[in-house]
UniProtKB/TrEMBL annotation:
Family: Belongs to the GatC family.
Superkingdom assignment: Bacteria
GO molecular function, one term: ATP binding
Function: Allows the formation of correctly charged Asn-tRNA(Asn) or Gln-tRNA(Gln) through the transamidation of misacylated Asp-tRNA(Asn) or Glu-tRNA(Gln) in organisms which lack either or both of asparaginyl-tRNA or glutaminyl-tRNA synthetases. The reaction takes place in the presence of glutamine and ATP through an activated phospho-Asp-tRNA(Asn) or phospho-Glu-tRNA(Gln).
Subunit organization: Heterotrimer of A, B and C subunits.
Protein's recorded name: Aspartyl/glutamyl-tRNA(Asn/Gln) amidotransferase subunit C
Record carries keyword Transit peptide: no
Classification via InterPro entries: Asp/Glu-ADT_sf_sub_c, GatC
Organism, as annotated: Roseovarius albus
UniProt-listed PANTHER family: GLUTAMYL-TRNA(GLN) AMIDOTRANSFERASE SUBUNIT C, MITOCHONDRIAL (PTHR15004:SF0)
Amino acid sequence: MSIDRDTAARVAKLARIRVEENDLPALAQEFNNILGFIEQLNEVDVEGVEPMTSVTPQRLKRRKDEVTDGGYQDKVLSNAPDAREGFFAVPKVVE
């Protein structure tokens, strides 16, 4: 796939990046270089290679998955402008 000047301008517009007209050919070339690198990566045989989370082998820290109520309802509700019966009280918006 090759990116031309018009496609580079469209990508810049979609990304909300202002690119001067005379800089568009260089941007298109940079996009083409990036796509070339991606094509090179697609040529690598990764069959049987385990996914990694880091370049150094390490085990992720784990915690017990326990359901709790948080234990600090009073602290949370202390910031509310209006709290009733353990809940945030808000104005009625539906009739």
